[in-house]
Structures are given as structure tokens and as C-alpha cells.
Amino acid sequence: MFTLKLVMKMLKLFLLFAILALVVGVLSQVALAATTGTVSATVTVQNISLTVTDGTVAYGTLGLNATASTRSPVDLQTATNNGNVTETFTIKGQNSANWTLAATAGTDNYVHGFCLATCTTPPTNYTALTTSNQTLAAGVAASGTQTFDLYINTPTSSTNFTSQSVDVIVTATAT
Description:
Elements: H1 4-32, E1 50-53, E2 67-69, E3 77-81, E4 87-92, E5 100-101, E6 109-115, E7 127-128, E8 134-140, E9 145-153, E10 169-174
Parallel strand pairs: 5-6
Antiparallel strand pairs: 1-3, 2-9, 3-9, 4-8, 4-10, 6-7, 6-9
């Protein structure tokens, strides 16, 4: 049936196709090769943070329609950007349990204000606090500070003569 000559031709043909397939396979691998590049990427999470030092004001016992400030005795407050981004500081007052924060003193209405510069004669140059945020400082760089003084004017008359918590809230936001 098969002659040796035919078998040899078939074997040569098979070897030729095997070698051809091997060469095509190797070359196709070379053709599929690619080069790569790397993009170096870093990220830092923003940290919005502030502290207020000394952070405590004790106005003491005051009469009706009396005023006091952090100028005397000197009790300057300092807001510091402890974050890693530029921040805007805002400031606001609050109603106490028995008094209402107002633009002018009245019956159970008190005035609280802040000052950034030339604060020696309150209430001159003082901005009245409200229960809404007001700008204390804008564009405060990381580790930057803003100093401020506070001023209070007690109610002209009152139905309550106990200690009132009249806190001031300073908040930081990213600029």
C-alpha cells in the first residue's frame, strides 16, 4: 500500500509543516510583544482641622448692661490651622439657656462680638456675633493662625441671674 518513498515524502511534508508552524508560532509571539510604561501616582487625604487656644474666656460676674472683653485682662484667643490644606475660619455665637444673642442688649438679650485688629476700645471695631457663621479669616495656610478678641454686653434687664454659657464656635472649612 504505502511505499517507502511515499512515506518519506509524507514525513518530509509533515516535518516541513511542523517547522513552519513552529516558526509562525515564534514570530507571532514576537509580533504580540508590547512595551509598558508606568504612571507614578500619589494621593494625600485632606485634613481640615483647627484648635483655639487658650479656648476659655471667663468674663466673671457682671452687672446688668455691663461690658467686658478679652483685652483686660489680656485673654487673646488664637485659632490655628492644624490641617494640611488652606482653610477658612468662621465664627458664630449662640443663645444661652436664658439669654438670646442679639445685635443690641435688651431684656434677656445679650451682645457678643469679636475683633481682629485695633481692639483696644470695645465695642469699636468689634463685629457682633450671630447664630450664623461669619468669616473670621480666609486663606489660612496650614499651620497659620488668626488671633481675635471677644467682647460681651450683658442684658439690660433679666429674669435669670445664674451663670450663662455663651460659647463661641469657630469652624474650619477647606478653601
